[in-house]
Design goal:
By secondary structure, the protein is α/β, with parallel strands linked by helices. The protein has one domain (about 1-60, about 85-145): Rossmann fold. It has five helices and seven strands; from the N terminus they run E-H-E-H-E-E-H-E-H-E-E-H. Strands 1, 2, 3, 4, 5, 6 and 7 form a seven-stranded mixed β-sheet that branches. Strand 5 (about 85-95), helix 4 (about 100-110) and strand 6 (about 115) form a beta-alpha-beta unit. Helix 1 (about 10-25) packs parallel to helix 5 (about 130-145). The longest helix has 16 residues, at about 130-145. The two termini are about 15 Å apart. InterPro entries: Flavoprotein-like_sf.
Amino acid sequence: MLIVHHTPSPNLQAMFEAVVAGATTDEIEGVTVVRRAALAATATDVLDADGYLLGTTANLGYMSGALKHFFDQVYYPCLDSTRGRPFGCYVHGGSDVSGTVRGIESITTGLGWEKAAEIVTVTGEPSKADLERCWELGATVAAGLME
């Protein structure tokens, strides 16, 4: 499983850590979790993974430039080879995150990826319940990849 993230703030770092903790919990067996910053992730990383977790900020009503760059780099090289693969996503913003979610859903629909869990959205400082939802997101996507 590939986690592609843009993590520029303490709030997103806490969400990222919760997602990783869920994806790597002891109950998950046989799933290798690879973490890549959005600006470092490549088409090879995407092709080598069986599923994806995406993490981003909501900036000016859209996903971070880093995650958009990731999608720009991998879209066509991965288009036919990754259809049907599961993904999950978490988004953090100061206020409205709906444009970010809409953009991610549009791109992943074009790629033919299947949403494995509801997108976790958080505005402001993540609460304990928000971090639990992030943990569950990581665990759900990873569990779906267990053999």
